[in-house]
Amino acid sequence: MYTIFITLIILGVVECGSYEMKRPRKPEPPFLKNMTREAKREYHEILRNRNETIAKQKQQVLAWARNHSIEAQVQQFEAELKQHKTELKANVTSLLAALPQAYQRLNQITDNENQTPIQLKEALNQFRNSSKMVRRR
């Protein structure tokens, strides 16, 4: 009985572990939502080809989209992706510009020995809240 119990526990752990080891899939682009299984397979096959340049893959995806009458949706998706990338670059650039000043302020707070631990904690909380404002710009 004990052996069966241990065997079940080991099998359960192995099964849970194998589930955890599977990579989560990236969400599919919205233009694939109503596509057939075959059309999705064709799309993923284009992206799976690691020997092609990104530009060539984009051309192949557009040709695929033309064949499936969803070229406008794919172009809209690409435009939104490009816009997101532009915003991300701008946000990172502004964050990097603010970083030296934030680092200097953090050092001033932590190097100040004329404060109590409670005051240090409050100053760090204020710093954290002010840096959240920098991130939201």
From TrEMBL:
Residues 1-16 form the signal peptide. Pfam families: ANIS5_cation-bd. The keyword Signal applies. The keyword Glycoprotein does not apply. Residues 38-131 form the SXP/RAL-2 family protein Ani s 5-like cation-binding domain. InterPro entries: ANIS5_cation-bd, SXP/RAL-2_related. Keywords: Signal. It comes from the Eukaryota. This is SXP/RAL-2 family protein Ani s 5-like cation-binding domain-containing protein.
